[in-house]
Amino acid sequence: MKLIVGLGNPGHTYYGTRHNVGFAVIDALAARHHVSVTHRVVSPADGRPAAVYGEYQQQGEAVRVMMPLAMMNESGDALRGFEIAPETVLVVCDDVNLPLGQLRLRAQGSAGGHHGLQSCLDVLGTERVIRLRIGVGATTLPRNLEEFVLSRFEPSERPTMTRAVAQAEEACETWVREGFEVAMNQFNAAENISSCRRHDATKRSSS
After folding, report:
1. CA-based R_g, the chain, Å
2. According to the model, what pLDDT value does residue 190 have?
3. Catalytic residue check, 39
4. pTM for the predicted model, two decimal places
5. Catalytic residue (choose from 12, 19, 33, 115)
């Protein structure tokens, strides 16, 4: 089984915020495969719902798409209570340090200050967990970073983020079908090319 975990904060209050782009990717995958993300994972500690998930078959393999029900900083609670190999997990989350809409797929490393990702790494007991980061950053980050990540996208930002979520969905699909290396080379390279084009355009306009 492959497990794709999209990170975010549960509840209508946080719907569509920068911190919840991981949930948006799960919604997109669920819509594509016509599954309802309604099955519940119960916390072994206290019996409370820890996550909701849906499951589908792709090329003969089960794929589970999951959204934690705990607040972001406790996202790892969704992974407690059942055995799963870390190499079969893909965590999708926001990244304020990446340009808006840019994707970055990595096979291991620290959480880079993302508390939801850190919670998942702590529960899995390793930093060798594949993660797909989606840039939600501004040109200059505000002093109140918590307020920023809980804000919604500006109208001018929404087309970029719509494309980014669609790309992230495709990156997840590619990971399931063809593995990490293919997905990383395809989607990280695509973003690097886009960044170079934007940089070249900026240079031409300023010359």
Report:
1. 17
2. 54
3. no
4. 0.88
5. 19
